[in-house]
Each structure stands twice: as C-alpha cells, then as structure tokens.
Amino acid sequence: MKIIYILLIVILCIGCEKLLFEEDPSNTPTENFEIFWNDFDRYYAQFQIRDIDWDLVHSTYGQSITASTTDAELFTYLSEIVGFINDGHVNLYTPYGTARCNDCQNSTPSGLLINPQKYLVFGSHQTYEQIMEYRNMIGNNIGYISLKTFSGAGEGIKLKDERYLVIDKIINEFKDKDGIIIDVRSNGGGNSLNAETVAGRFADQKRLFHRFYQKNGSGPNDFSDWYNVYIEPKGSDQFLKPVVVLTSRATFSSAEIFVMAMQVFPHVTIVGDTTGGGIGNPIHRELPNGWTFRLSTKVGATADGFIIEGKGIPPDVTVLNTGEDAAYGTDRMLEAAVELIEMQ
Amino acid sequence: MYAQDSTLVAGKRNQIIVSSGYSKHIIRDDVISPYIYKGIQAPVWIKYNHSGNKYLHRFQVYYSSLELESVITNSDNYFEHYSQNINGLFSYSLTRKIYTFKKAGIDLYIGGKYKSFLNYRQHYYTENSQSTTGEQSNSLDFISSVYKKYNSSGDIFSFSLNFPVISYVLLSDMFNANVSTQINEIDPHKNLITQFIKNGDFVFIDKQFEFQSELSIYKSINQFFALGISHNFHFYSFEKHPDISRTTYANNQLIIDLILKF
C-alpha cells in the first residue's frame, strides 16, 4: 500500500510539469504575426531613434493577416515590415529567403578594393583563414591590411577568436613601415571582441571609444543607463605611426566598433564613406512556423554620444569610389589614404 | 540509540550512493524562444551521506549533458532549433533532528544546504546562427527532511524539500541579450571565470523562485549493499529583467540508487 502512495506522489510530480509551464503558442498565420510583433514590441531598442510607430504597424498589417493567409503571403508582409524598419540587424530567415532592410540591398564601388594588382605586392604575404590578409604596397613603404570580417568565437568559455592574434605577427612585420592602411570597406562585422583584439594593437593609451544603452524591460522606455566601453593597448607591440582606416557603407556592426575604437587614437585617420550604422547586439527569435528572425536590443554611440544607429560613423576625410573609377581600375579611396600617410 | 537513528540504512553510519535512471529536462528561456524545449537523458549522481547521532551530512554531485528539442525542431531543412544543454550540481547539506513523531515513527530534520548548479545552453537556430545562455547559481537553502524506518530490517523512506534563502547568481546576464548594471565591469580580454565570480548578483526569492524535492525508499540487500529508488524534482523560475528575460526550468528524475554502506 505504501508503495502505491509513493507511486501516486511520483505521478503527481510528473504531472505538475503542465502546471508550471504555459502551453506553446499555436502555429497559425495570426499567431505568427502576433509573436513577431510582440517580440519586437518587447525587445527592439530602436523604435524611437528610427521614428517608427510600431502600433501603426500592428493596425496596418494585423488587418491583412488572417487565418487564411498563406506562408508565402505572410513572408511578403513580414518582409515589408523588416524592410521598413531599415535596420541591418533586423532579418527574417525563412525557406522563402531572407528579408533584409531596404537600404541593405545595394553595394557601391566604395565598398570594394578596386584593381588590387595595381596597388599591392602579391606573393609576399598571406591570407589568414579568410579573416584578414596583409601585403606590401607598390611604390611606397606602406603596409596594407584587409580585415575581411570579425566573425568567429573562441571555444568553450573563451569568447574571442584567437585566430585574430595573428595581428601581432603583422604588426611585427610592418614595424618599419611609414604607415599602415587598414581596409574594412567590405567588413560586415561579427564578434566585437575580435574587433577590439585588433584595435588594441594600435592603441596609444586607454581611451573611451564607445557608449551604448540597452533594453532592460518590456516597456517602450525601459532602457539601461549608458555604458562606457574602453580600448587599451593590447599585445607586446603597438603600431603608433600614421594609420588610415578605409570605410564604406558596407562597414557594419562590429566593424563599426573597430572604426570607433580606431577613431579615438590621434595617429589614426578614417577615410572613405560613412559606415553602415548599426551596432544592434541582435538576438534571435523563433516563430511557431519554424522561421527565425533577429532584432536589435541595443543603441550604440561614439565616445562623444553620437548615436550611429541608422546613421553611421562619418569619416574624417570623405572620399568615394565612383562607377567610373571602378571602370578605369582606380581605387580613389586607397590612393587618398596613401597620400595622407605620405604627407605626415 | 545507534540502530534507532532513522537516517541510517540498516544501522550503518556512512553511505556512498551511485544513481542513474530517467531524467527529463524542460526549459523555457524567454530570451531564446517562446517555446518549451525538452529532453530526456540518463543522469549520473554520486552521493555521500554520513549520519551522526543528531546530525546528517549529505554531499551530492550531479551531471548531465543532452540535447533539448521543441515542437519546431527540424520543422524545415533550413532550420535546426535545438539546444545543447549541460547541467551540473554540487551540494552539501547539514541537517539536525529536531523532532520525532513517535506514533508514526517519523523523524523530522531541518538545516541548511549549500547548492551550486550550472545550467548552460547553446541554442542553435540554424547551423550558422546560435546563442549562448544559462544560469549559474550558488545558494544557501533551507532544507527540511523526514525519515521513517518502514520495516524491522532498518530500511528507510525519506522525503526532503529545500529552497534558497539567498543566491549568488553568476552568468546572469553575460550570456543573455539584456545586460545588468554589471556588464561594464566584465572585460572579456581578462580571466572570465575570476570576473564572473566577482560580478555575480545576489538574488532573493522575488527574482528566483526555486525548490528541490527528493523522495527515496531504500532496501538493504546485505550487510554492505542496498538498493533504492528516488524521485527528484528541481524547479526554478528566474527573472533577469521584467517581462523580457525569464527562465523557467524543471528537471524531473526517477532514478535507481546503488548504496554502499559502511
């Protein structure tokens, strides 16, 4: 009899799972839309700075999405919303494709290294696992580093990717150069810790370089205080001679963290186009139909408090490559960077 | 006196217990997904009990590693939607017999328990898209236990319940999207473990509702060995920021215990 009592208690405890957890949401078009809208409502940090009336989005699309809406139609509606938010850190991933912001669709000649054979010595240096490459330049004593991405994380509890420590080897090889050009024109970001790993090799002293605040509650005005982020010298040697960082509209996210860090050093000049404008710290979310989306939970700014979300970081010297430059094999931005270093 | 102590399995003061069986993990982490993620796995427990005349010391270590899935896991070739989940727990409890219900033959113990657990989750949306989240809590719990000998051989039935009075929670925000006031003090370029320990948050019952229960029945096989069956239940609901980052977790276990007594 006692055993029966014990078994009953066990069964009751197993059954209490249902008491302790709410049921999963159902997979209907309207439920998918409501979760999508509500998650943005609770987590998205940039409605105010992007001047978006989120309630209006609900009243507009909520009427169009019904129980008979197909998946393809739902994708069209949600893609319109993603495009309208116009944030590079807002995406919708579906079997129908990936929805992106309206301004994220176009590439320009300013985002590319044009005619590298004209400017760079090939064969002397290397590409490191597709994260960066470095080369001597033709006709001058300037080093060229292309940082292609900042993606990658360490294993286990290590958050940063140790592959980026190859920058120490590059700094050592370039120590006798008159200057270095760092090209992040096509760098779409990744892990900001990797950006700081590289930027620290150019730091002259500890400096404030970035500020941000973040959603910390579900209300529209639930934000944390401002946080200050500092960059300081890293590695055994730092390169403190003239440095130019080349930027474009495609320079985005963690690459903008890198630009902000480099911008506060007195020997560094930012040349090119305004960056893409998005720090974001996106989180991913799931919908009942299995689709995934991401959204920004953070608002990022430069050291002096200039909010870069949707605006980007203006360069110190604006130089753009045109379609004509690309046609004639001229990288006007790279040439301007060389001139700037040679003038110093 | 010695043989009458209800915490002793057939009169032995020391017990080493190795356990395993069925363990179901259920979690809903607001920051990751609106979905419940579940998984079943065989846990490993190692326990040591020492019974004094009035005091009972219990050490417990637990580990499990498994994959959690939801109703949308593998809902499409493009998506994965699963979590790799690691759970670990260490606890030490010291309880004292405070009362005996003589008619029922039940002893009541109360005391304190130090409990440290890690619930670490790597969540995969797609192959190239993942998030890390988790909780690590160190708590001082209030624990209450009852023991009863249910036959003349000294076999026992026991039930215990504990809940934290205060917890020191590490990793409370570092791996989540929404930061506490302390993220700025964590420098990812320096030793993370040291910093996590320094930068934890003291959490009270208003932010972390948690309890553990353990129901066991032990029967001796011979002078040195006994067998038991236990039901363990661990539940917590931990709110990091109002309405946007609550983690609710339950672990339901039905395990077989092999007891060495000496």
Keywords:
heterodimer; A: about 350 residues; alpha/beta; 2-enoyl-CoA Hydratase, Chain A, domain 1; seven-stranded mixed sheet; four-stranded antiparallel sheet; B: about 260 residues; mainly beta; Lipocalin; ten-stranded antiparallel beta barrel; 1 helix; about 5% helix; globular
Describe the structure.
- The complex is a heterodimer of chains A (344) and B (262).
- With 344 residues, chain A is an alpha/beta fold.
- Chain A has a domain at 109-203 and 238-277 and 312-343: 2-enoyl-CoA Hydratase, Chain A, domain 1 (Alpha-Beta Complex), CATH 3.90.226.
- Helix content of chain A is 31%, strand content 19%.
- Chain A has helices spanning 2-15, 17-20, 29-43, 54-64, 71-85, 116-119, 166-173, 192-199, 254-263, 323-328, 332-343; strands spanning 91-94, 97-99, 127-128, 132-136, 142-147, 179-183, 207-214, 227-231, 243-247, 268-272, 282-286, 292-296, 298-302, 317-318.
- In chain A, a hairpin with a 2-residue loop joins strand 1 (91-94) and strand 2.
- Chain B is mainly beta and 262 residues long.
- Chain B has a single domain, classed as OMPT-like (Lipocalin, Beta Barrel).
- In chain B, 3% of the residues lie in helices and 65% in strands.
- Chain B contains one helix and twelve strands; from the N terminus they run ββββββββαββββ.
- Chain B has one helix at residues 192-198, and strands at residues 14-29, 37-41, 44-51, 55-69, 82-101, 106-126, 129-149, 156-170, 201-203, 208-220, 225-241, 245-261.
- In chain B, strands 1-3-4-5-6-7-8-10-11-12 form a ten-stranded antiparallel barrel.
- The radius of gyration of chain B is 21 Å and the shape is globular.
- The interface between A and B is large, with 53 and 49 residues.
